[in-house]
Amino acid sequence: MQYSIERRIAYLNNLLDSKAYCKKKLTLKVDFETVIAKNFFEATPEDLRLFLIRKDKVGRTRVHDLTCPFLGIASANSCFCPVQLAAGTVSSFIAQFKAMFNEIGRAEPWDSTRHLERCNPADSVLLRRYVDAVKLEQAMSHVSLKQAKPIFLNKLEKLSLYLNDKLLRTDLSVGNRYVCLRDQAFFKVLFYSGDRAYDLALCLSQEVKKLSDEKGYLLSHTVGKTLGNGHVNEFVLPKVQNQVICPVEGLRKCIEGSRDMGVDLRTGYLFRSLDSSRTLVLDNHVTTSAMSDRLRKYLISLDIYEGETAHSFRAGCGITLMTNNTTSSEEIMEHVGWRSRQSFNRYSRINRIVGTTGVAYMLAKVSVLKDGDVNVIYDKFGDYSRLPQAFQFD
Could you tell me the domains of the chain? Predict the structure, then answer.
């Protein structure tokens, strides 16, 4: 009985420790102790700020001076302006610092006059001011959130044809054949689902259901970056007339091809990794970084690589839907899994430039009215200061 309890506790702890966020925190802690040469849990707010400043040297966000002619040009690398950590990365690091101190019971805001063993140095005025200053600095430098280079259907088709040709080779090893089967299915599903690559990598075969009309599959998974606590991501994968890019055909080919090689994908992770020798298919799920690496190699071989990552399929799906005027923004957000309007707006900027139905175009149409017409309407209905009081006493 005791053995079973200990085994369950170890299993549950391992579930938490193996999560990507936990691994990131551990890596950050080791990095801090290497850079600052000090025990992490003895750190002060000044130590944490110093660490963040020193980490700027590995940043990739170019912060242009206000007099720099390249200010506002996202791809400009010809100037001598410094490259620093993005403001979002700084905020993320501070949040990880704060979580690590909270986990050991140091949850109170930092106050150097109180018991330091109870205070959280990451929850200090010094660090809050630091991240606010970095955000302001980068806003003035016109630094904006970077969007993944989208992958659209034309590039997905070239990629799929390339993998189909590789699968026709008779000299492919078992490991390489499985990888090609896995990758072609993963990329097709990723585009048509608009899913996060991280979430899709965690998908289980049991979560894929066949639609009653035989027209596709329904995927429903509960574990992912923003999933859990009642949040479920469900989406339909339809059959596509073009068999080369059809996600249903891609999954069928992966399942049947893997079975022929002795790999049973009917249960467990749908997209799996290989061992270090690349000969054995493991029960572990593939990682997002591995899929981005595979994608980059394929696109380089095709001479069409433009900096895409696995996230590019999600971006391509969203933008493709936005260019279809029959799809509402709410439907797009639900399919792609954007919970905030901010993500939708970031990718829908194309409609504000190309379309003719946006606010700017409406304003251009109404600007032909005489100013007096608008003034009359405003004075009569819009100027509340002209309205009489409802209750007056003689």
Answer: 2-140 (no CATH), 153-345 (1.10.443.10)
